[in-house]
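Methods — Computational structure assignment.
A single polypeptide chain was analysed. Its primary sequence is given first, followed by the predicted tertiary structure written as structure tokens.
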Amino acid sequence: MNDNISGWNTWSEAFENWTDVTISEIHGLMTGLMTACHAPDEAGWAAVLSELSFEALPQEALTLLTEEAEDTVFQLKDKDDAYAYTPLVPDDEHDLYERVMALKQWANGFMTGFGITDCSLTSEENEMLSDLAKIGAIRLAEDEDFEGGEESYLYIYEFARMIPVSFATRQRKPVKELALIAGLPIDAKTTKELQAEGKLPKPMPPVIDIMNQNNPS
């Protein structure tokens, strides 16, 4: 599948001026969320991304994300169509390094998106997420060969591609019911905004961070 058909070029253009995360990662996040939730409208997406401390999306990107989420939910709900799902990664005309890194980013995005759904996992799903986390943890220098080359890449790509298909069988819930934004009106200020205005105390750093600062390795 080439970059025009996959949507890579369209996403690259729409998200050109938004650099919080890569398009592969935001596509993975969207997919993870859509395996367990109904597709939200633009305001719903804006609320989710804001609570995740992302900068506001350009309008073109927000519209694209909203439309793609609707298409993804529709696709994953259909047993036959679901098998045609594809992660947003560049085509095989791109260097293997670029494709591996994009798949790594997609995997991390998926785990974030699914993670905020707060869904319970079967033992099989838990094992699949553990394996996906290994893809998300890939370390590869640009001048370093990917172990196993194209064959290994195609194997992990196919594994990652099938996870949304496997995860999308659960009953979906509205995004507004997620713990992340439960009880938060769409137009309400975020925790980050309230903290900036001094209306909420800023969070204490995690204990482990303090320990690391006091006991540097």
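Note: Residues 199-217 have pLDDT under 50 and may be disordered.
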